[in-house]
Amino acid sequence: MKIVMDEQQYQELEDLIGIFDGMFFDDEEVQCFKFIKDIVDREFDTDYINKERKELMGKQLNESFEWLESLNVNIKNKDKFLSCFLY
């Protein structure tokens, strides 16, 4: 599956990259948003991402969204971002 984003979705993704730049959860750098941007920019088919990588990125996304929601931050495209790592 290739991920296509409109301008608003892409802008929110870039904002999330800025928020999580240099941030770590469980001694691992949060890379999920940069990874999604790379997938979108390269028009990469997510079916070719291995299961372990999808699981790791999905876990990072969920933890990131939980943290943002604890600060009352609304993520408009949360479902779109989460769909990137369905397996």
From TrEMBL:
Domain of life of the native organism: Bacteria
Name listed for the protein in its UniProt record: Uncharacterized protein
Organism: Hungatella hathewayi
